[in-house]
Amino acid sequence: MLDVHAIPAFQDNYLWLLHRAGHAVVVDPGDAAPVNAALQTMHLKLAAILVTHHHADHIGGVAQLAEQHAARVYAPAREHYTFAHAAVKEGAQVRLPEIGLDLQVMELPGHTLGHVAYYGANMLFCGDTLFSAGCGRLFEGTPAQMLNSLQRLAALPAETVVYCTHEYTEHNLRFARSLEPDNATLERRQQDVASLRLLGLPSLPSSIGLELAINPFLRCDQPAIQSAAAALATQAPALQAIAPQQHADTVLATFTAIRALRNRY
Ligand SMILES: [Zn+2]
């Protein structure tokens, strides 16, 4: 059986370690030390490293791990990396025979322009594009690019398990409830996450089905989100120009407004 293990790193990152029969693959190792510790404890041999985007907290350990373990590295073709790697583009298949898994590359611009996700066998490794009840900040891309990227993820099967890379869920859920106080699934998720976090457990992975029900960034077509976004953006002087009622594309305008509102939340 393939197993996926969360390695906590830094303040709130998760480095996802996939393993089967003594072989392992790690996604976005921002730090080599906790990965090496996990490999040692679990008696695993590192076969490959997958990179979703170029931020330091996702690649800081790549060069060291690749060298120490002679591991293959896959990283987005549209970004620049100093370590040796196979550059992957939209639709590319990443073959990981050591753990019996093939993953497909999706290019998802928004958080960064070259950002990719790896999808296959009902699993999605989405880097900083999709979080539980949230989405990544727009450091390089436009709201339209990020919305399009998120809509592609939303179209994946509901049972897809989503391995997000940050523990931002509680803060995201508070923001989501400020937009949708009457969403019962959101309230239940908030209770579930509070229990998990009390026990020191990750709130992740999530699933596409759950995110469709609770994540405001996947729910910009919902009248409740649209009216809440319009009301809040209108109240904030700096955001009045992007208030959804000023724009013809309501879904994009709503997304733009709630992304800006979340930045200040
Ligand atoms: Zn990032």
Helix and strand topology:
Blueprint lengths: L2 E7 L3 E8 L2 E5 L4 H10 L3 E6 L5 H4 L2 H8 L2 E5 L9 E3 L4 E4 L4 E7 L8 E5 L2 E3 L4 E2 L2 E2 L7 H12 L6 E3 L5 H11 L4 H15 L7 E2 H7 L8 H13 L14 H14 L2
Parallel strand pairs: 3-4, 4-5, 5-6, 10-13
Antiparallel strand pairs: 1-2, 2-3, 7-8, 8-9, 9-10, 11-12, 13-14
Helix pairs in contact: 5-6, 8-9
This protein binds zinc ion.
Strand content: 15-25%
- The end-to-end distance, rounded to whole angstroms, is 41 Å
Run of helices and strands: EEEHEHHEEEEEEEEHEHHEHHH
Tell me which CATH architecture of the largest domain applies here.
4-Layer Sandwich
Radius of gyration: 19 Å
The tally of structural domains comes to 2
Spatial strand order of the main sheet: 1-2-3-4-5-6
Low-confidence stretches: none
Q: What's the level 1 CATH class of the largest domain?
A: Alpha Beta
- Structural class computed from helices and strand pairing: alpha/beta
Bound molecules: zinc ion
Number of strands: 14
Largest sheet entry: 6 strands, mixed
Shape: globular
CATH fold annotation of the largest domain: Metallo-beta-lactamase, Chain A
Write up this protein.
The structure is a single chain. With 265 residues, this protein is an alpha/beta fold. It folds into 2 domains: 3-163, Metallo-beta-lactamase, Chain A; 220-265, no CATH class. The protein is built from 9 helices and 14 strands. It has helices at 32-41, 56-59, 62-69, 143-154, 169-179, 184-198, 208-214, 223-235, 250-263, and strands at residues 3-9, 13-20, 23-27, 45-50, 72-76, 86-88, 93-96, 101-107, 116-120, 123-125, 130-131, 134-135, 161-163, 206-207. It has a 6-stranded mixed β-sheet. Strands 7-8-9-10-13-14 form a 6-stranded mixed β-sheet. A hairpin with a 2-residue loop joins strand 2 and strand 3 (23-27). Helix 5 (169-179) packs antiparallel against helix 6 (184-198) and helix 8 crosses helix 9. The longest helix is centred in the last third of the chain and has 15 residues, at 184-198. Zinc ion binds at residues 53, 55, 111, 128. Zinc ion binds next to loops. Belongs to the metallo-beta-lactamase superfamily. Glyoxalase II family. Thiolesterase that catalyzes the hydrolysis of S-D-lactoyl-glutathione to form glutathione and D-lactic acid. Pathway: Secondary metabolite metabolism; methylglyoxal degradation; (R)-lactate from methylglyoxal: step 2/2.
